[in-house]
Write the structure tokens for this entry.
Amino acid sequence: MSDTETQYWVATVPLADLKRRKKTRVEVGARAVALFLVGDRVFALDDVCVHKGRSLSRGVIWQGKVVCPGHQWTFDPETGEAEDQDDCQPVHDVRVIDGVVHVTAFPRG
Ligand code: FES
């Protein structure tokens, strides 16, 4: 996040929806964000893959990691780190308030 951006929280989807679908894509301002339910935790990553821009929300969760449908890069959903790659997918903080998933408007860092 740059100094000129003010971080704020944005309400997205009901947690119950995510529990059914396990993943979804939401719009947070001008950003597309991919939400994933891994175990009982919710994670939010920018939807546009840092590699070549495919939609992470069309990927799958495999062994607790997010696998991009483009070229199968595997991301840690908590840190956004890509396995065996130098690139890192931007991640957003998440909290659940009254059964609704909220994410930060801008990624961490
Ligand atoms: S676009 Fe995601 S791995 Fe290539």
